[in-house]
Amino acid sequence: MKLPVLKNFESPTGSLIIQELEEPHFDPNWHFHPHFQLFTVLEGTGTRLIGDSIQSFEPGDTVFLGPDVPHLWRSEAPYFEKDSQLRTKGVVLYFQDDFLGKEFLSKPEMHPIQQFLEESRRGISYIGATRELILSELLALPHCDDFARILRVLALLNTLAHSSEGIPITSYGYVNTYKVSETERMQKVHNYVWQHFQKDIRLGEAASLAGMSEAAFCRYFRTRANKTFTDFVSEIRIGHACKLLVDTQWTVSQIAYESGFDTLSNFNRNFKKFTRQTPREYRSAYRTSVQSSL
C-alpha cells in the first residue's frame, strides 16, 4: 500500500470548507489531513481504501472521516485512459474540531457530538435515510450564507451523533502510523499493485521498489497496513472480482483468472475469506437485492 501524503488546507474566509468536485478521476494519492471530512460520491466507481479497510465504491458512497485517517477513492482503470469520456463527481465538507471555538465542544450539551467525532477516527460509512440526508445537506451548503452554514452543519452533526445507520470502517483500535517521509518509495509499490494485480505480482519486485529485502518489506508492510502484503493484493483482486460478478455474465472461472488468481480453488478460498460468501452466493445475493428494490 502506498504511504499517504499529508494534505493541509485552510479556508481564507471561514471555518468550513465545502467543495464540489468534478474531475476525470478522483485524486489517486493515498493521503491524510488534520480535518474532519464528510464526502459523498455523486459519479464514479472504483475501490475505496481507508486505513486498513478496502471496499468498492459507487455513486452514493458516503463516508465521515476523523483527522489523519489515510484514505483514497481509487477510480477504476478506464477513468485514467487518455481518451476516456468518464467523469467523477463528489461533494465534500472539511472542518477542524475547533471550528466553533476551542471550548465549544466541551460543553455538556455537546457531549454526543464530541463522542461522535471521537468515534469517527475509525471512519464511518452511512446507509439508508441518513445517507440521503447527508447528500441533501452537502448539496445545500454551498448556497447558504456563513451563519446558516454553521447552523446546518451543527444540526447535521447532531443527527449523525444519534444515527444508527453508521458503520465503522477500519478495524477497532486502528491508528495511522505512516510518516510523510516514507511516501515516495511506497508510492511505487502501490502503483505496481494497481497496474499488475490482474497478472503475476512478485513479492521480490515490490520489495525492490521499496528498497528493502523481502523479509524486511513484509514486516514493514504488515506493521503499517495492519495486514500482510499478500492479503492486500488479494483484497484488491477480490474487489475487482465482486464488480465483475455483478456487472457481467462471465463464469466464476473467467472472473477468477481475469482478477489475477492462478487457480479457481485459490480464488474461491480467498473470496470466502474476505466476503464470507462464495462467488455464486455473492452474485445471487446482489441480484436478489436488486429485484427487491424494484
UniProtKB/TrEMBL annotation:
Entry coiled-coil feature ranges: none
SMART domains on file: HTH_ARAC
GO molecular function, one term: sequence-specific DNA binding
Protein name from the UniProt record: AraC family transcriptional regulator
HTH araC/xylS-type domain mapped to chain residues: 187-285
Top-level lineage group: Bacteria
Record-annotated membrane-spanning stretches: none
Pfam families per record: Cupin_2, HTH_18
UniProt keyword annotations, A-Z: DNA-binding, Transcription, Transcription regulation
UniProt-listed InterPro entries: Cupin_2 (IPR013096), Homeodomain-like_sf (IPR009057), HTH_AraC (IPR018060), HTH_AraC-typ_CS (IPR018062), RmlC-like_jellyroll (IPR014710), RmlC_Cupin_sf (IPR011051), Tscrpt_reg_AraC-type_HTH (IPR020449)
PANTHER family attached to this UniProt entry: ARAC-FAMILY TRANSCRIPTIONAL REGULATOR (PTHR43280), TRANSCRIPTIONAL REGULATOR MTLR (PTHR43280:SF27)
Signal sequence bounds: none
